[in-house]
Amino acid sequence: LKGINPGALVIAIADPHGHEAALTEIAGTGASLFAMELMPRITRAQVMDVLSSQANLAGYRAVIDASAEFGRAFPMMMTAAGTVPAARVFVMGAGVAGLQAIATARRLGAVVSATDVRPAAKEQVESLGAKFIAVEDEEFKQAETSGGYAKAMSAEYQAKQAALTAAHIAKQDIVITTALIPGRPAPKLVSADTVAAMKPGSVLIDLAVERGGNVEGAVPGEVATTANGVKIVGHLNVPGRLAATASQLYAKNLYAFVETLVDKATKTLAVKWDDELVKATLLTKDGAVVHPGFRPAETAPASDAPAPAPATDASAA
């Protein structure tokens, strides 16, 4: 941080949730920090959406890693020596990562099913040839925000969903979990009891392990094997396991955003501080944390002013 000049622009995946002290330290340098993962979900910002570009790769890589750990064929094969059954893959979370995992597993010949708390996900899942699994009650019907994210579900709904999926998971060969909620620990979707009921040789891929994990027993950065022979894969930075492609897409995301900060005529920086992209992603400026969602308490809006809404949406991953 000592090498950052006051007034410099820093554009990155900043991971601001839970790192208030680090934000304050960065603000102290006088730099303007932009968090790419806070990019709004609007049409003009799609080319800058780092969450989607990286989650897409994570979903693909999750299936490749699962195939390697599974050690058996994915498609059904009918041979003179006998019939090899198709692998059964269950994807939990049908955001960008989940949908790519579904598509990839289908391409490899697996029988795929998936679940998500968003009603709109059902059509997306079925359009890819997978079976949709969910408790479709009234809460489920209201489980999506206007921005297309999933809301945090009640404990009662989570219990009903867990009961439905537990029996389904016991029949699966591979389970891939992708559920994340911005600013909060990842929801626990697969309990130790559910893992214990799975068949020996089954594989669990936890794409949320860096945020606490969706699977009980997942270890960040490790492949853990349970007493009943189930592998729980907790790879970190899964997009980085496809480093060249991940870097290529991330660079395009960054370039597209930087273009909006430059005057095309003079070829110089000309940040429009009132632009919706800037306001949504700007964390620090002029020595202070300025984003309403991360502003320190002493500089937060007065009690009679509208406070920023809490982040309760589920990630696109």
TrEMBL record:
Q: What class of enzyme is it?
A: translocase
Record's keyword annotation contains DNA damage = no
| Residue segments, region Disordered | 294-317
Keyword NAD on entry: yes
* Highest taxon listed in the record's lineage: Bacteria
From the UniProt record, give one GO term of the biological process aspect: NADPH regeneration
Catalysed reactions, as listed in the record? NAD(+) + NADPH + H(+)(in) = NADH + NADP(+) + H(+)(out)
Which EC number(s) does the record attach to this protein?
7.1.1.1
Q: Where are the transmembrane segments?
A: none
For this protein, the record's InterPro entries field holds:
Ala_DH/PNT_CS2, AlaDH/PNT_N, AlaDH/PNT_NAD(H)-bd, NAD(P)-bd_dom_sf
| Sample GO molecular function, one term | oxidoreductase activity
- SMART domains with a match to the protein in the record: AlaDh_PNT_C (SM01002)
Instruction: Tell me the ranges covered by the Alanine dehydrogenase/pyridine nucleotide transhydrogenase NAD(H)-binding domain, including all copies.
Output: 67-234
Q: Which PROSITE patterns match?
A: ALADH_PNT_2
Pfam families, sorted = AlaDh_PNT_C, AlaDh_PNT_N
Q: Which GO terms describe its cellular component?
A: plasma membrane
Keywords assigned: NAD, NADP, Nucleotide-binding, Translocase
Composition bias type Low complexity, residue spans: 296-317
Stated role? The transhydrogenation between NADH and NADP is coupled to respiration and ATP hydrolysis and functions as a proton pump across the membrane.
Q: Which family does it belong to?
A: Belongs to the AlaDH/PNT family.
The protein's name is NAD(P) transhydrogenase subunit alpha part 1
Source organism per entry reads Ancylobacter aquaticus
